[in-house]
Amino acid sequence: MIEKTIEYNVEVFADKEMDQLRKTRCLCLNCKYDSKTCESAEQLYNLAVKENLAMMITRCPKFSEKI
């Protein structure tokens, strides 16, 4: 369900169900690389911070699962 919410002091629309999945299923959050060692992750993170976005990455050629 999509609803308005306040995130980081900004009113945004959010899909609460996907937000919960994002925390466990996003490839970036499950990858051994992070925004300090992956240029793509760094760019996505910077965009997310700048625009108050949350995203779930479901496809990546550089993904390497955390052990």
Structural description of this entry:
By secondary structure, this protein is α+β, with helices and mostly antiparallel strands. It has one domain (20-67). 34% of the residues lie in helices and 18% in strands. The chain contains two helices and two strands; from the N terminus they run E-E-H-H. The chain has helices at residues 16-25, 39-51; strands at residues 2-7, 10-15. The protein has a two-stranded antiparallel ribbon. Strand 1 and strand 2 (10-15) form a beta hairpin. The radius of gyration is 13 Å and the shape is globular. 3% of the residues are buried. The model has no long low-confidence stretch (mean pLDDT 94).
Short description:
With 67 residues, the chain is an alpha+beta fold. The protein has one domain.
How are the elements arranged and paired?
Blueprint: E1 2-7, E2 10-15, H1 16-25, H2 39-51
Antiparallel strand pairs: 1-2
Structural class: alpha+beta
Unreliable stretches (pLDDT < 50, length at least 5) are none
Strand order of the largest sheet: 1-2
Number of domains: 1
- Total number of helices: 2
SSE topology string: EEHH
- What's the β-strand tally? 2
Q: Mean of the pLDDT scores?
A: 94
Shape: globular
The oligomeric state of the chains shown is: single chain
Query: How much helix, percentage-wise, in residues?
Result: 25-40%
Radius of gyration: 13 Å
Q: Report strand %.
A: 15-25%
Query: How would a crystallographer describe the biggest sheet?
Result: 2 strands, antiparallel
